[in-house]
């Protein structure tokens, strides 16, 4: 297939740099990388067996075998991304049932705003702030938690176990307000990272005591009132302010995690100049400016597009596997396909020529081309003639949103 060749060539280049034993395993993976974005219908074993080159049992067997998705995607990031990277951490709920399915429980669904039965994966992503995009690194299912281990402790363990590899990408971990407390922050900082996050509404910050002659020595100098800031500690950030917004920055102590943090406090004002809302952003790297902290945190949302594209277009939520090995393979296969498609069909173009990335159009082109080649083959038509290549080129964009 002409269209899938770009993904297959890219995947082949990465696989050659990994320690994969056996030509058969490599052949299967290359076939799967080409088939996955072209699959019609649901992304499950039944459809793979119907539309792929192997029987259903072969796909089930290979999904049970381990594959180093983190190493594969790290090579992609190293070769394709800029040096301006941060690491995003974000759990994602996946609906799934079955009393024999590994890891089924009740997990928070952001869409529903409550806990629902299913499974959960924690996505690790390298976010490129130059190209304004996110690359999937690895999805880890929430499973096999130790007795008494909290969710935050489990998420911290995921980072700790991969710290050596992740530190090669970036020392900055960016996460939402749920992660702005211990044990996550303390353990991740101890592993060598800096955390950038938004604070919870009940955040407790305290001033460091400024020694004065004749005053008893003490470590803290009172709690930070977010509406009445001490101007000896906090300074205004004029570059980020608007008539409806006051922005302050200062170095204080976060009481709940016992860490020194740079706090960026945004006070939203009403028409009368009164504070109507306060948002606080934190960074354990106190050398960052307020603008740098806000910029890094804003790019966290690029990871959401990975999950969106994975769920809508490449079957992230459609796996039939029940074992944790099959679930791990399926979720990472779906999200890695987004990586490959993005690099092969979007980032390969000069920045000035790029239009908005559309996973929908890429999968449409793959499916159209695969179907056209199948029909030509059944009719005994050579698809490699110039005339047929022109027909295929036209058919590929049939139904595309940007055609």
Automatic annotation (TrEMBL):
Domain Transposase IS4-like: 162-340
InterPro entries per UniProt: RNaseH-like_sf, Transposase_11
SUPFAM superfamilies: Ribonuclease H-like (SSF53098)
Molecular function GO labels: DNA binding; transposase activity
Stored Pfam families: DDE_Tnp_1
One BP term from GO: DNA transposition
Protein name as annotated: Transposase
């Amino acid at each position: 297939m002409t269209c899938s060749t770009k993904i297959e060539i890219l995947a082949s280049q990465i696989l050659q740099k990994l320690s994969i034993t056996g030509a058969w395993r490599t052949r299967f993976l290359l076939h799967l990388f080409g088939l996955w974005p072209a699959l019609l219908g649901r992304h499950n074993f039944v459809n793979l067996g119907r539309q792929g080159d192997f029987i259903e049992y072969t796909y089930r067997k290979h999904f049970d075998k381990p594959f180093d998705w983190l190493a594969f995607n790290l090579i992609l990031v190293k070769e394709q991304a800029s040096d301006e990277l941060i690491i995003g951490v974000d759990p994602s709920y996946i609906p799934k049932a079955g009393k024999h399915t590994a890891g089924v429980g009740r997990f928070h669904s952001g869409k529903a705003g409550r806990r629902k039965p299913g499974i959960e994966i924690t996505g690790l992503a390298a976010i490129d702030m130059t190209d304004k995009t996110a690359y999937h690194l690895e999805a880890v299912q929430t499973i096999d938690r130790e007795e008494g281990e909290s969710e935050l402790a489990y998420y911290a363990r995921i980072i700790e176990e991969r710290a050596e590899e992740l530190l090669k990408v970036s020392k900055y971990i960016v996460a939402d307000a749920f992660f702005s407390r211990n044990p996550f922050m303390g353990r991740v900082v101890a592993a060598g990272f800096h955390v950038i996050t938004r604070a919870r509404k009940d955040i407790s910050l305290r001033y460091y005591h400024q020694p004065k002659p004749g005053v008893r020595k003490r470590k803290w100098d009172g709690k930070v009132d977010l509406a009445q800031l001490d101007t000896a500690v906090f300074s205004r950030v004029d570059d980020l302010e608007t008539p409806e917004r006051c922005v302050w920055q200062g170095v204080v102590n976060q009481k709940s995690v016992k860490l020194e943090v740079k706090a960026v406090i945004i006070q939203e004002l009403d028409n009368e100049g009164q504070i109507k809302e306060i948002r606080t952003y934190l960074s354990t790297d106190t050398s960052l400016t307020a603008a740098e902290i806000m910029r890094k945190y804003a790019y966290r949302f690029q990871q959401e597009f990975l999950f969106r594209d994975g769920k809508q277009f490449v079957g992230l939520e459609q796996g039939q596997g029940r074992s944790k090995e099959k679930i791990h393979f399926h979720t990472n296969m779906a999200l890695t396909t987004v990586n490959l498609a993005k690099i092969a069909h979007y980032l390969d173009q000069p920045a000035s020529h790029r239009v908005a990335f559309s996973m929908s159009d890429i999968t449409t082109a793959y499916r159209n081309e695969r179907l056209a080649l199948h029909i030509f083959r059944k009719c005994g038509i050579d698809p490699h003639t110039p005339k047929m290549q022109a027909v295929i080129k036209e058919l590929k964009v049939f139904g595309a949103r940007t055609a």
